[in-house]
Amino acid sequence: MTTAEEQALIKKLAGNPRAFTAEYSADNRKWFAGKILDFLESQGNPDSDMERLANVLIAAAKKAVNDRVRKGFSTAGLANLWKLYDQLTSRTQIIYGMAAMNPQFLDSANSDYFDFILNRRFRTIQRMAFFVNKNRERKIFGYPKATCSSGNMKVNDNSSTLWVSAGADQLPFLLTGPGKKDLQVTDDTLFIKNDVECNRNLLACDPVAMVLHIDALFEAKDAKKLLNALVAVGDHYVKIDNPLGHFANNMAGQRLAGVTSTAMSSTGTNVEIALGRVGYIIPFAKNSVTADDLKKDAYIPVDGTVWFMIVLGRDHNGFHITGVNPVSKKITVDTLSTKYDAGAKVYVTRTNFPIYQTQPFHLTTDSRPGNALFEQLNLKSEDLQVGDHVYVINHPLYLMYYPTGAWGGEHSFISEIGSRDTTGTVFRNDLKVEGHGLNDTLLGMVNDMLKWINTVLSRFQAITKIHLNNLKANGRKTTANVTFIDPASGASFEFLEYDIQYSYFDYRQSKKVDVTTGFVIQEAAADPRNEFLIFNAENSDSKLTPSIPQPNVQFLIKFTGASFATGQFKPSNWAVAYYNQQSATFETQPLFASDDKTPKQLSFDDLAKSKPFFALDDNADAFVTRPRVNFDATYQTFLKNNGAF
Asked: Computed over its alpha carbons, how large is the radius of gyration of the chain?
């Protein structure tokens, strides 16, 4: 079948809305028809049979929706919410999505397996929508607070004997002996309401996502049997942690940095490994990296003291990365004893924890082919599914402004998909995501996250205008409000202390804020001064540690105009410089529009340039965690023997 013939058939199949349920959108129907044709073609069916066989599968999928769409929703304590949820199309989209990606589900022999995966997907978004959110009204989950447990994370007071903290920052939480005895009780206890805020689960978005992944397994036919089998793997297997790695909230934990893009051809010393994306390795370079370095097809030396590890299935190796090539997207490692296929995960671990050697994975990161209940993979936006766990990533400027902040991204579950095209404006409005405290369209969630960055940009815009106006009016001369200080160290820079009030707009609270304590600019002493640092945004004393937004952070403002001599005083020629880990490039964000008056604020379009989801492959749109689907007989036997269905 030619491409044109296939597109014509897709249009014909999708153009018959009566063949589908009413809740399934036209865009989704096109996607579904395309996936079904891909499957039929992979089975070797002749072109003459494609339309007939596709219609058979479309009819079977509609029947599966009609048979299952009203099942599985618990109305216990949620009677008033049922009417709202009845209007959503989430469950319909899950069923169609499962049938499109794996038409084997439509075989009656796989009916129980179909229900197991469907109900896991649905339960996560149900729990997030009505048990986690809305946080204040539901009174089950909250965020860590300084007035509760010194700001550390905690499980609710009812669960304190069932889970015990075993790591820095209160993660992970491991099951205790009593917690293992009856996992159904242990799970239900996490969802008890508490009127007193400090008595609730106080967790960040990543451990909340992990709780929901564990909770979804109670959709198994014999949940206690399945969970007991998983707990038996080891104390660090079923736990409340970051879904992307062991101790991942700790700097020495498994921080996911790359995924192999091809199978390896060799082992030994100085081995090359191809990754889908290397932007998260670049910050570990031994020396400062420039924009030109990132354009060269050459290896940049990496800090040899940092420990990394690679994991796939039961195999794992620890190593040091010796170099990273930003063009070929390869790393070199000092020693490797095992060859790995594509899909192996590379973690920054910094230190070689013993747990990594005895058990290099936990429940959601496990990729053992005969045992894994989840899969983590890079994929295109068109293959996202309702119930997928994604990390909606904030703009790279966020982590520069707030290096220890909680809004670098949001661990979220996709609750609806109306469009699958991330290049258009429809996708951002038609894809709905549920995070801990955030339930909105993708556009709405991103806009909430960008408020934090735009607030800081507003500060920098005010400061930059004052600074440029002073230089234009007074040159390098001292005024009553500006003092030049030559550092005692003799370093080639100087401070400009501004004892002057400025105002900025706080987009988080929708109000203007006045700063009466001034600010400090740091400039290089040598001309031309085509860049400067905002050394302290909230105090005019250059001897103080920079205090806003985070201690010991300075912000580089660069001249981006064509000619410094003629354009140095134009605000539109100045921008914030930053490194983008997603694209492995140095970029700038202009502070003002070309009229030199209008402040530039970040929007979804700015974030879309580097894609709105965390991903570890330049050819993918998102890295997802989802229920694993595999019809291999050995794996199916494992599931049945352990009570999954």
From this structure: 27
